[in-house]
## 1
Amino acid sequence: MAHPKYEEVAKILKERLSALRERDGDLRYKAQGALAKRQDEDQEFFSEDEIERFRRRFLERYGGMSLEEAFEGASIERGHGLLTITHCEKFALQHPDKESASERLQKALWLVHRIRDARASELKAKGFQNIPDLLRHASYGEDAKQVISMIAQGRTTSLYEQICARGGRAHLLSLALAPFFCPNDVAFLDIEAMGLFGGSLVMVVGLGMQQEGGFYITQLVANTPDAEEAVITKTCHFLERCEVLVTFNGRAFDLPFIAQRAAFYGVSLRERFLHFDILHISRRIFKGTARSCKLQDLAREVLNDVRDLDLPGALVPRFYQEYMENPQTKSALLVAVLQHNKDDVLQMAKLYNKLVIMACEQK
Amino acid sequence: MNVENAIRLITTAPWYRGQITFQYVEEASEPKLLPLPDVIDPAVAKWLLTQNISQLYEHQVLCFNLASEGKDTILCTPTASGKTLAFLLPILQALAKDEDACALLLYPLKALTNDQLEILKQAEMQSGLFLSPAVYDGDTPQTKRPKIRQFSRIVLSNPYEIHEILPYHQMWRRFFQNLKFIVIDEAHKYTGVFGSHVAQVIRRLLRVVKHYGADPTFILASASIGNPEEHAFRLTSRKCVVVKGDSARKPKRCIVFMDASKPEYGSPFVQAANLIRTMVSGGLKTLCFTRSRKAAEFIASLLEKEPLIAPYRAGYMPEERRAIEKGFKEGKLLGVVATSALELGIDIGDLDIVVLTGYPGSVSTFWQQIGRAGRKGDSCLGIFMASETIVDQYVLRHPERVLKKEYEVATISLDNPHIVAGHMLCSASELPLSPDAEHEEIALELERKGLLRRSSKGFIYAAITRPHALVKLDAISQKTVVLVDEATNKTLETMDFSRALREAHPGAVYLHQAETYVCQTLDLQGLIAILRRQDVDYYTQSLTQKDISVKDARRLGSNGYVTSYSSQIVVTTRVIGYLCKRYDRLIGRNDLDLPPLTLETKGLFMEFDIPNDYKHLGGLHAIEHTLVALAPLLISCDPSDLAGFSTIQSPYSGLPAIFIYDGQDGGIGLSDELASILQHALSTCLEHLSTCPCKHGCPACCLSPQCGNDNQPMDKGLAMSILRQILESGPIG
């Protein structure tokens, strides 16, 4: 068959896709299976005017700047459509010492099989202040022994399962496991995806990790769709090396998305690491007090850390798309996206710091 | 059941006036039975024992052997010949021998999946095997899905769901890695544009399954069609062995042709009702198929005083349908008046009589419906009642047309770029795509438009809108209206938008389970119609006006006699009012103000340089029908994928014209393809009409069972002479 026919078909498909996108609204897609972001962010709706205002502010702030200028001090590598930007942040990830963490864990009587909060209070009143005390208890001695050995041997995976099983997935105490690791073993992950459906491209991956010399945030950026493969491959390699992973809503969003894209490209993804999704932990702790559980709102209220001009997460796909269609004139939008992603990773790390301290506080 | 006695019941009935015109007897034949294969696993044997099955039909053994050897198979069988067992047996055997093995069963209708699930759950219990069978479709709640993906070894689903879940294949990897069988039931249903879409979905599924290292065996089950091997290949891309399922016991079947067209004996509905009443009062279990939902309801309403008779159609809520099926099976109901919804394999027990009111449109379907009678091998009776329509009368006078069993062919197109391109986008979002040589060109065009990009592993989907939302497997509209009983707030039915305008407009008399309701309001925004239960002695018939307008017409060519054009066609259908009728007498007419339904599509039209004399319309009409009827041969689509319109005053330039357009919104390239072979198509029409032995037109040439005008006016002779004139006037452009 002749080309003009295929051209017509391709044109029709493209028009219908645009029409679908406009009709449904860019980003307010219905949840597609397991890849829906369940944050408030998703329910945000911006009018065209508001979007234009954002656009203008970013163009004003970052217009005409090169990436080197916008991100002073960052090291930038370019190659085959893949951009790698490494920032070094003035921030130190700190863990309380392992002893106080162990002590804190031992105070949680409810970790022992068959002991719930009510029973724990009873036992405390009777003089059993911590789990080692329970060793001399007729009924709970054996089970207490199990938990103590887990703590003594630093079996973090078993402890994590125990905490989740008995206290729920989002229990703050799980962060008391952090001090069993060196801060340099903790990785922070935040991704920016172009949509919510099971074929959406992941264009930006932000990875934070502490090393000798500081807290580094590496951003892997796909300048063109075909560079996504490299972004995913490098992300999976990175995750191979980490012992502890921290995300904000990563259980429902970031990780399944990476897994989806890794499966798409046939890249293997390590799935066994300790994963702290601090959205859920934060929600449990701050639900009554904080106005919203969005990362930047929590950072502002709990840490007093305010972002300057920030791009709302819901607008990321749109602005990234605009940048890709016009990389020369719209590079300011790329900067906006990258700044947003970097702020996400950094504030996540700061929030984590605070939560770990709270988790280890002796009551 | 004694056939002679049953016929005597008819001929001695008070309403009988000699309507029987012809009788034909198919003698019984003994089943070809074989012992159970030795290799059957003990668990499977246990299940068979509990079902009292100690022997198999020859076709079941054949199917078992082929499937177990990994040979793709298509089983062509009339209804009720043990096809479920035919494909379950090799599957259970494989799952018994390999504790990780899995099977996927695909059905075109949800109602069928629910029935099959029951059978599988029983099989699990009776065999002791761990199967965890589950239905996974649009109705499966989110909370149940992860467990099914993780544990189920037999999953029942449909092509629509597979289309949606393929991007999430890595959540299915355990299942796909271990997939040993894919069953496609009612495979003859996948024809035309719908079938072409499903064929692409199957190919995408195979690509994903192959990615996980599996190589499943196909087992297709189909009603009798003219081209099983070809159809199976087009649907699945595999060469399948054809197994004819005719070794089941065939009952002695008498086919009776009756003429119900004489108005002095009552309308055809009244005559059908009389027939059913007579059979049921003789204790004979009777199933009557009608051509439309309204007919089913109407006939049932004539029989409302009979507690043993009920209507049945797909629009009823599932619980209602289950109740009727169960009642019928258990003998609590002796008569059911149904639409084609009951033609597929839902279990309704043994039937003595099947009545067909009106020709169902194809020889294949005729035998599928008749074939419902005589399940357990007893003699049975099939009755064809012809109404006054031209098609019915033709079949009545030429019974050999159906008795010769020349089944229609199923057509699937594999190279319609409209279909293929959409699925390529979906494919590329599931796994990087390396298209075959024949599709390389399409991929390059999609790349030029920025929808695909090249990566090191192949083409990837690069746009940000979900391509699966773009590809609709069938043309069924998404909007459905819920019909609610005003008094009880109960949902009576859900029907699609366009039907609701015709049958649930304010003032419409609506029949449900033989009770009449009058529609009070139709809320088109909220998609709800409120109906009030009311005893009325009239019925309503909506009046629709169809208008065609032409946009962006492009002249393709002319030879002086006829000029052909391709254009955008806008078909506006408006329900303008309705008639109130008591029996056949008009007692009133009301106007309605409802929004029009517009179909914007692509089409082709031919204008003729002949006087716009009404007498020419018969010829044009015949040509229009013949072109559409020949579509499967000319452009590999179903006649129902196209629509036609003939007029002596074209909306374009006022000349007599024939329009042929794609039935799907937006067009799908069919009329374009027809336009590109127009000369050939018209000469094929002439050849077909000339060689058809009928005198004035028949269902095999220019009579269409779908004609909204009852095939009037129709002039085969004039059509042939117009066609000759066209061909003699030289090439058209």
## 2
Amino acid sequence: MKTLIIAEHENGAIKSATLSAVTAAAALGAPVDLLVTGNDVAAAAQAASQVAGVSAVLTAEDAALAHPLADLIAPVAKQLAGDYTHILVGASTFGKDLAPRLAALCGVNQISDIIEVIDADTFKRPIYAGNAIATVKSSDATKVITVRGTAFAAAASEGGSAAVSAANATVGTAKVRFVRADVTESDRPELDSADIVVSGGRGVGSKEDFAKVFELADKLSAAVGASRAAVDSGFVPNDMQVGQTGKMVAPKLYIAVGISGAIQHIAGMKESGVIVAINKDEEAPIFNIADYGLVGDLHDILPELVSKI
Amino acid sequence: MKAIVAVKRVIDYNVKVRVKADNSDVDLANTKMSINPFCEIAVEEAVRLKEAGTVSEIVVVSVGPKAVQEQMRYAMALGADRGIQVETAAAPSSLDVARLLAKINEEENADLFILGKQAIDSDNNQTGQMLAALLDIPQATFASEVKIADGKAEVTREVDGGLVTLEMDLPAVVTTDLRLNEPRFAALPKIMQAKRKPLAVKTVEELGVTLSNSTELLSVEPPAERQAGIKVGSVDELLDKLRNDAQVL
Ligand SMILES: Cc1cc2nc3c(=O)[nH]c(=O)nc-3n(C[C@H](O)[C@H](O)[C@H](O)COP(=O)(O)OP(=O)(O)OC[C@H]3O[C@@H](n4cnc5c(N)ncnc54)[C@H](O)[C@@H]3O)c2cc1C
Ligand SMILES: Nc1ncnc2c1ncn2[C@@H]1O[C@H](COP(=O)(O)O)[C@@H](O)[C@H]1O
């Protein structure tokens, strides 16, 4: 038994989704290798080699891999798959894009979003927006799995000393080209690893009024999230959407402001430590899962909170 | 240009599912079923491409029991031209659906495949990527904008850090995200017309595909429920609770 994790990295650092996958892999009890792909991977490979619990780091370096394209990374991982019983990727948009493509190349099913490792073949995963937890058993020779980051603590990014070597794999040519990235610039903590998240919904009212949510977040050094309705209304960019089909978060404190609590939203935040809901409708479903509810107008409550923290 | 759109029949997104008492599965008896919302967006996108003169024919495919024809008819009411149902007892795995779609394409030779990014029942988010792998064609997942010109597709994708735009040679697979479009309502005359559109039924055996069955569902449990907490009367009380009781501030 041996596990390969396909690393997601940015500016030479390993992303937290990958570090959570390392923790999930540790539960399998077999050696863990990390595959780092990219154009210039030296820094990321160095960072990968220091992750606690990693046995070996394999690199695939090629100009064509400058952008993380599943079309190119999947065939690289496929060439290595024979050595592994498990291939894990974090369930970020990177992993969700890549893992199924790799699984199909390997001719196996893929298991999405595991939240628990029962044994080498058996896993728990949420289905139906987390309203049911399935236990599934796979008989595939290579199990291709994505790991839900909120269910596994991040492995320590220091303390390891894995050897780095070039993977024995060739890089193909893709029929897809990177055109551009429109990255949301922010100095705030990342949504999927922040200790505190403040999320705003349609009730916030407008893009301008969302400044009040940002102010509270800044006061708390929190990340900012949103409901789908807030994103659809153009208050904030898409990468802030929390929920079944957006990001999964589980901070120590989650503050939902002007969010009604649809099942799709709750699916993305109900594992949070403490949940606070601020809503003017005392019947809003969000109060059914909130530890502390405050009924009132967010336009009054947010400034008062900011002034009193 | 021919487009294949895959649609899945799923529990309606407004319904909260319950787990069966014997923990064998979820209970879908007497539950309202609908077209998977992401598939509805996929159909709408194909219809818009047809209205723009880019796509000439839209073939809607669904894999499952006869009941899926209801959602196929709905897709036809939105504007799909004809349908192919692959008859199976239950909805098979994403890999099997991808294999069946790839097999159907041997005859259809589509230029564009539009799938939902995720079925809201299994929450798999796999089929489109698998189909692209099996056909060895490019993929653009989680699309919020699709432009097609000169045999190429330019697709903007919603990713964790923001947006990424890719250009792909056709044929290619696109999977839809929520912001791609807002599906229209199916007007009554269109619903009537849709009943007369061609709908072929094929079996898995006819298509010569062996279903994989490598993932076994052992049990299904309800999640740990959160209990409703308390309502506080003021900002001061809230801060006091967060600082002193919950100790998160
Ligand atoms: C396929 C699919 C996927 C989806 N995925 C997601 C997802 O990932 N994430 C997600 O969030 N949603 C998702 N949704 C949408 C979801 O169903 C809800 O529509 C959405 O979460 C509602 O957002 P909201 O709570 O901000 O808006 P609303 O439901 O409109 O709620 C607004 C709330 O604000 C309150 N309010 C208004 N004004 C004030 C005020 N001045 N002060 C205080 N409170 C106020 C109101 O009382 C109300 O409760 C999805 C839907 C579908 C169909
Ligand atoms: N049984 C099915 N029949 C037709 N299309 C399907 C089926 N299952 C999945 N799909 C397609 O694949 C998409 C993603 O589903 P999944 O990968 O299962 O989450 C759906 O939105 C559909 O477009």
